[in-house]
Amino acid sequence: MQTTCSHLPSSPRMLSAGRLLLNRVLPGSTNVRFGSVSPRPVAGKTTGPWRSSRRYSAGWGAVNRAGRRSDDEPAVPPEGDDHGEARKVWTLYDPLQGSLVTRVGGEGAGEGAKNPTPRVRKPETEGGKRDNNSRAASSLGSASAWAPITARKKSGKAKVSWVCESCGATPGQWWGTCPSCQAVNTVRQFSEYESRGSVGFEVSEAVTRSWLPQGPGDLVPQSLEEVKKGMNQLEWRIPLPGHFGMEVARVLGGGLVPGSLVLFGGDPGVGKSTLLLQIAGILAEGLGSEGPARVIYVSGEESIDQIGNRADRMRIHAPGLYLYSSTDIEDILEKIRGFSPRVLVIDSIQTVYLRGVTGSAGNIMQVKECTSALLRFAKQTSIPVLLIGHVTKTGDIAGPRILEHIVDVVLYLEGERCSSYRLLRSVKNRFGSTDELGVFEMSESGLQAVLNPSELFLSENHPGSEVLAGLAVSVIVDGSRTFLLEIQALCASGSTVVRHINGISANRADMIISVLMRQAGLKLENTSIFINVVSGFKLTDTAGDLALAAAICSSFLEFPLPNDVAFIGEVGLGGELRTVPRMDKRVTAVAKLGYKKCVVPTSAEKSLSGLHLDIDILACGNLTAVINRLFRAPDP
């Protein structure tokens, strides 16, 4: 749009009104020219420059406040200005510079025309003509009266993203409820400038370059045969000696893999730092055949004296164990270069940071970049890195979900506050099975391996009692380990609590109770039922359905079960008993522990007949058959 104005106002108030009018510009291309024009056309005719004056009113929505002057500023007439010849004032938007520029020039390119005077950066072309690719905005005044109109430019371009603090999802915009984890008010804005300093890749590349015998550019792809040549799988992993080490090695898949990145998580106070300090101690002590091994334990939460006091209490006296307290990743990787450690332990990943990365320690970007730097360090140097990760109130690793995708192994240390037993469970393992489970007991000298885990989950019966009402034993398989669990049930009338379930899924327990009422005919409508799994174990295996049903029947009928009977089987909605995987291994474990009878589904009787075990197999097809066979008075 082009607009031409004549008879410039001379008073400051009129100048301010005219400036207010002309500073309201359209977002599109606008050309405002000041100069002498022909008289205003007669009404009804819209020829000439006045044709676009009606359309100019549409530009009142966008106001450029950067170049507006106050009414109190005096108006300075342009030099050489008269009524016969006016000067042009140009205010242009330069898309390359991202700012407004003001120029003053003559009317034309003919003789006597003055060269335009650029106010900001880019010079004007001949005759005051502007570049067609730029946008023009209107302005009024002379070269001495108007200051440059520029936009403040940021030091770096900001990349804005929205990240959930709970699960690490990036929804792309703000949401009151996270679309991924459904957490309320956890989506936060995160801005990252492109002009930041070093990132995890640059830091690890610079620090680990001195560790490598050749530069990264000299590395070439190798065939599988070349990689496997001379590799011994039995000697490839780093062994963990002793009962404690063997229990940890079982969960890791046989030992610690060189160059692996292992993440340990768990609730506060469950024993993560104790577990890692013990692992560091046995690694420094158990590699004597290969010479003195150095293990570095770096803590960002404790001082060296505090770690040493805890190691002395745990009776750890390894000469090859070195302690260091720092939170700077670059400083840590630089200081340990002279030691050439066999294993590096970081406690914890939420307390370390990288210089140049936006945010403080524990920030989502810091956690991601620090983990990436440590991963690259581990892969290039073949030094295993053990990390400790904090957890949120929901039990997940604090930080973005990508943290668990970056590392090679994710282990969780579980345990109840009221219990001294700890379970080490594998959630992710690139070098082994995720079904393994390690059982430990917390003592004054640290964690001790439990050699017979079944004793942990079996209650202590009174020596003179051979029966106990409301108790049944089941067999579960977790990885390569077989456990015997005791399930307790209590049926009481007149209680204000309808049901209280501990250690079993509430939906699963409700289903078993409903099947007992419908298919077995038990009148449990007005009965309060309490269910508990001994030692705080979380039962998820369906093989415990039959033991749960037997415990409820025993308590409701007030008929105690013999303590030498075990139950294995899944209960269907029709009351039928279904077989579960690895029945032979379960029954074998029951027989080794001295049990005389085992109730199993009828479909599994044929597969168990060839085991030749010293145990009676009681095959039943449904719950009614189990009740008729076990819950009846003995013959006189």
Automatic annotation (TrEMBL):
Coiled coil: none annotated. InterPro entries: AAA+_ATPase, DNA_repair_RadA, P-loop_NTPase, RecA_ATP-bd, Ribosomal_Su5_D2-typ_SF, Ribsml_uS5_D2-typ_fold_subgr, Rubredoxin_2. One of its GO terms (biological process) is recombinational repair. Residues 121-133 have a biased composition (Basic and acidic residues). PROSITE patterns: RECA_2 (PS50162). GO terms for molecular function: ATP binding; ATP-dependent DNA damage sensor activity; damaged DNA binding; hydrolase activity; zinc ion binding. PANTHER family: DNA REPAIR PROTEIN RADA, DNA REPAIR PROTEIN RADA-LIKE PROTEIN. This is RecA family profile 1 domain-containing protein. SMART domains: AAA. Pfam families: AAA_25 (PF13481), ChlI (PF13541), Zn_ribbon_LapB (PF18073). Keywords: ATP-binding, DNA damage, DNA repair, DNA-binding, Hydrolase, Metal-binding, Nucleotide-binding, Stress response, Zinc, Zinc-finger. Residues 134-144 have a biased composition (Low complexity). It comes from Spirodela intermedia. Residues 37-56, 61-88, 101-144 are annotated as: Disordered. Gene3D superfamilies: 3.30.230.10, P-loop containing nucleotide triphosphate hydrolases. Residues 237-391 form the RecA family profile domain. NCBIfam families: sms (TIGR00416).
